[in-house]
Write a structure and sequence with these properties.
CATH architecture of chain A: 2-Layer Sandwich
CATH class of chain A: Alpha Beta
Strand order of the largest sheet of chain B: 1-2-8-11-10-9
Helix content of chain A: 10-25%
Number of domains of chain B: 2
Distance between the termini of chain B: 56 Å
Order of helices and strands of chain B: EEEHEEEEEHEEEH
Radius of gyration of chain A: 14 Å
Strand order of the largest sheet of chain A: 3-4-5-6-7
CATH architecture of the largest domain in chain B: 2-Layer Sandwich
Radius of gyration of chain B: 17 Å
Number of domains of chain A: 1
CATH topology of chain A: Folate-binding fold
CATH superfamily of the largest domain in chain B: Probable tRNA modification gtpase trme, domain 1
CATH topology of the largest domain in chain B: Gyrase A, domain 2
Structural class of chain B: alpha+beta
Helix content of chain B: 10-25%
Number of helices of chain B: 3
Largest sheet of chain B: 6 strands, antiparallel
Number of strands of chain B: 11
Largest sheet of chain A: 5 strands, antiparallel
CATH superfamily of chain A: Folate-binding superfamily
Shape of chain B: globular
Shape of chain A: globular
Oligomer: heterodimer
Strand content of chain B: 35-45%
Chain lengths: 88, 180
């Protein structure tokens, strides 16, 4: 499995640290209802197919990446820097 | 404070020679991390101009008489050897001099030895003059640069011994194959 870092190019996935679902990018407002916080902290989908999650290029440029991948085929469908432009 | 004796973290570890390859100490005299403040990128470029340098683009190292500027990540570069004073107020400057060691692998086949440790294409036609990359050396993160006399790697000072050992093993293995 290879991930194309927008800065460094195609690299082995072992250079990357996996954080988890992209839900971490959607933090509820401070005064949001407890249900929203519960969903943000604890509730995750477990799709068989396309999913989006956060990876960190720890052995490379140190960028946080939003990776779209297929959990069934392990195909990487898209990568973009959380604060920048897309590749692939 | 009395002046203390400076010793390299590589003292007694290098040079290492196997076959035609030599691993030597290339630790810069000074390393400053430069992260331009938001909207000040043009001012940083202007301030680097008198040094003959520019802010390195991704995967690039710029070389001049005053020193080098190498890309180290999004919005960040290392200023090597040169005095960072002209950048004061334009960028977040952090002295990194004591955190890193530099190793230079030179000689024909240096790319073949490093291919055992660094998972990127280092051949001159791909990784030529002015090329740099953030890439692992074995399990150690590193800044890899093409230099006039070979390939240079910046590695954490605390991992100097492990780095010399790993690169030395790769050099010896390559030399053994060439003799066979």
């Amino acid at each position: 499995m290879r991930i194309t870092c927008p800065h460094c190019g195609a690299r082995d996935r072992r250079e990357f640290y996996y954080l988890g679902a992209e839900d971490y990018l959607h933090r509820p407002a401070e005064d949001a209802a407890p249900a929203a916080w519960d969903a943000y902290l604890h509730l995750r989908d477990n799709p068989a197919g396309a999913t989006r999650d956060l990876w960190y290029h720890e052995q490379g440029c140190g960028a946080w990446l939003l990776v779209t991948r297929n959990t069934v085929t392990h195909e990487i469908l898209g990568v973009r820097a959380v604060d920048g432009e897309a590749t692939e | 404070m009395p002046s203390l004796i400076t010793t390299s973290a590589l003292q007694g570890l290098v040079p290492v020679r196997h076959g035609a390859l030599a691993l030597t100490d290339a630790t810069p005299a000074r390393i400053t991390s430069v992260a331009p403040f938001k909207g000040r990128e043009a001012d940083v470029a202007q301030a680097l101009k008198p040094l003959g340098l520019r802010f390195a683009a991704p995967n690039q190292v710029v070389e001049a008489a005053a020193g080098r500027c190498v890309w180290t990540g999004p919005g960040q570069a290392f200023l090597i050897d040169a005095d960072p004073a002209p950048l004061t107020g334009l960028a977040a400057l952090t002295d990194q001099s004591d955190g890193w060691v530099g190793l230079r692998l030179s000689g024909p086949g240096a790319e073949d030895a490093l291919a055992r440790l660094i998972p990127i294409d280092l051949r001159p036609q791909v990784f030529g003059a002015g090329s740099a990359a953030r890439a692992p050396v074995g399990h150690m993160l590193s800044v890899v640069m093409r230099a006039p006399e070979g390939i240079e790697m910046l590695l954490f000072r605390s991992m100097a011994r492990a780095a010399v050992h790993e690169i030395g093993v790769a050099m010896a293995a390559l030399a053994a194959r060439q003799q066979a």
